[in-house]
Design a protein that fits this description.
Layout: E1 2-8, E2 14-20, H1 32-52, E3 57-60, E4 66-69, H2 76-99, E5 104-110
Parallel strand pairs: 1-5
Antiparallel strand pairs: 1-2, 2-4, 3-4
Keywords: Hydrolase, Protease, Ribonucleoprotein, Ribosomal protein, Ribosome biogenesis, Thiol protease
Protein name: Ribosomal processing cysteine protease Prp
Family: Belongs to the Prp family.
Length: 111
């Protein structure tokens, strides 16, 4: 199962997210659930970097592990843009969770 954890501040701002595990929906290379989660998450990170010039702190590891943490963002407009991109990512991931809930679980935590 792919486990996705969204970490928010008490005010609701997304601070970081972590993805780990494999869907095991299909054989490696044919797993549309893993491919979808990967495309959405890496697409969001790449969009943040390309469109806002914010450089998230990224950690990758085995078993589908991805941790993305935002640095402190002082500019309110840039912060709003980054948050919008991340909220869009979450909506897309929730769509996968809705259709493939046996293989994907999203949890939100307040820091």
């Amino acid at each position: 199962m792919i486990r996705i954890t969204i970490n928010r501040t008490a005010e609701g701002t997304i601070r970081s997210f972590t993805i780990s595990g494999h869907a095991q929906f299909a054989k490696r290379g044919q797993d549309i659930v893993c491919a979808g989660v990967s495309a959405i998450s890496f697409g969001a990170v790449n969009a943040i970097i390309a469109l806002t010039n914010v450089k998230p702190i990224i950690q990758q590891g085995k078993d589908g592990y991805l941790h993305c943490e935002l640095p402190t963002i002082e500019d309110a407009k840039v912060l709003a843009d980054v948050q919008l991109l991340l909220e869009g990512m979450i909506v897309s991931l929730q769509t996968i969770e809705r259709d493939y809930g046996k293989y994907v679980n999203i949890t939100t935590k307040t820091l």
